[in-house]
Amino acid sequence: MIEGPIFPTQPIQPLGRVNRQPGVSHNRTAGFDQVLEKEISRGLKFSKHAQERLQSRNIKLSPQDVERIQEAVTQARSKGSRDSLIIMDRLALVVSIKNNTVITAVDDSNIKQNVFTNIDSAVII
């Protein structure tokens, strides 16, 4: 007769679960919200395409202009927008609200020749 267990005992862990440290919050939603707020707080970004358009059209944005655009992005975000056309003075910008990124810029001399697609809102500032 065999005495004792045939297999050595090991702690059993259910499949699909991760060992979690006590006292550490593992709320994924809170983590995502924190990451999103961190990205938004980094400020407005400009895609390579937008930078090229600004440069080729000799469009200069002051820090105050960038702040106005960021405020428009915040307004659009509060209404649930994803991609917005922002019209400021004599400039039109297509902005990804989700990514906080200016996608393209068009000055007043070229604005009449453009059709803006894939936007779900417009903000006039």
Number of helices: 4
Order of helices and strands: HEHHEEEHE
Q: Count the E strands.
A: 5
Task: Classify the beta-strand content into a percent band.
Answer: 15-25%
Distance between the termini: 88 Å
Going across the major beta sheet, what is the strand order?
A: 1-4-3-2-5
Please tell me what the overall shape is. elongated
In which range does the helix fraction lie?
Answer: 25-40%
Question: Which SSEs are present, and which pair or pack?
Answer:
Elements: H1 28-41, E1 45-46, H2 48-56, H3 63-78, E2 83-88, E3 91-96, E4 101-107, H4 108-111, E5 121-124
Question: In words, what does this structure look like?
Answer:
- The protein is of the alpha/beta class.
- The protein has a domain at 44-124.
- Helix content is 34%, strand content 20%.
- It is built from 4 helices and 5 strands, in the order αβααβββαβ.
- It has helices spanning 28-41, 48-56, 63-78, 108-111; strands at 45-46, 83-88, 91-96, 101-107, 121-124.
- Strands 1-4-3-2-5 form a 5-stranded mixed β-sheet.
- The longest helix has 16 residues, at 63-78.
- The radius of gyration is 25 Å and the shape is elongated.
- The relative contact order is 0.15.
- The mean pLDDT is 81.
